[in-house]
Amino acid sequence: METFKHFPHIFFMAIWHAVFCLAFLLTKERRGLHDLIAGIWLLIILWTAVRRCIIIAGLADGWIFRIVGMPMAHGPCLYLYTRILSRPESALSLRDWIHAIPFFLISLITLFSSADFSQAMADVTHANEPRFIFVFLGVAGGISLAGYSFASLRLIRLHGRRITDYFSRITYSRSLVWLNAICGLFLAFLIVFTTMQAISTGPGAPTWVANAALMGYMLLISFFCLRQVPVFPVSRVPAIASTAETETRPKYERSSLSADRMRELAGILIRHMDESKPYLNDDLSLATLAESLGLTPSHVSQVLNVEMGKSFYGFVNEYRVAEVQRRLQDERYAEYPVMRIALESGFSSKSTFHSLFRKITGKSPGELRSTIAP
Question: The pTM is what?
Answer without folding.
Answer: 0.82
